[in-house]
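Note to self: keep these together.
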Amino acid sequence: MMSEESVEDASRQALLSKKICELSLRIEGTYLEKAVIQLYKELETADIVFKPKTYLSNGWGCPNEVPIIGAPFYLGDPVLSRLQARMAAGRSGGDLSLMMYLRHEAGHAFNYAYRLFDHPEWQDIFGRFSLPYRDEYKVDPLSQNFVHHLSGFYAQKHPDDDFAETFAVWLTPSSDWQKVYAGTPALSKLRYVEKAVAENGGRSPLVSGGRLDVPFEEMLMTLGEWFKIAA
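Structure:
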C-alpha cells in the first residue's frame, strides 16, 4: 500500500505532466476574483467607470494597446497557487503583492482604454510610447523623477510602465502621494494622472477589447516545463 506521502507525490507528478491548456482553470471562486472585485471598488471610489476585464495568461500583463488584464494562470486554481508559492520559495508577496500588480496593470488598461499615450501632453510627461520595450534597462536608484511601487524601479523601464506605476500609486488607498512625493518631479506625473482621470474617468472607454496575449488555453507546454522555465 502506498504511503500518504507517495500518493501525494504521484498526484503532483501527474499534475506536472499535464499541458497547461488542459487544466481546469477559472477566475470565478478564486482569491484572484476577490482581488479583482477589490480593484473595481477602488476604481469606483476614484470615479472611474471603466472596469478592465481579466483573463488567465502566462503572467501579468496587458496585451499591447488592449485594455484587458492578463493574470498568471496558476491563480485560477488554489492547488496551483499553493504549488507555485512553494516553488517560489517564499518570494511571493501574498495579498499585498497581488493588489500591487492589479493596480499596475489597471494603469496600463486605463492608458489603453482612452489612448492617453497618443496625447502630446502624455508624451511630454512620460516620453515616447513607441520606444523599444526591453527586459533589461538602466536605473537610477536616487532619481526623484519616478514613483516607487513595484520592485526593481519598474517605473524606469519604459514610458508605458512609468504611467502604469504612477497610476498605481495614485490609486492605492492611503498612499498619501501628495505628501510622499512633494517637491519631486514625480508629483507632476501624479497630478497628470489625477487630471486624466477627471477628464476620462466618467466616460466609456474608446477601446474595450482586442486580441489576447497568450491565454492559458493556448499554452501547450506542460506545467512541469513551465515551472522549470519560471524557476
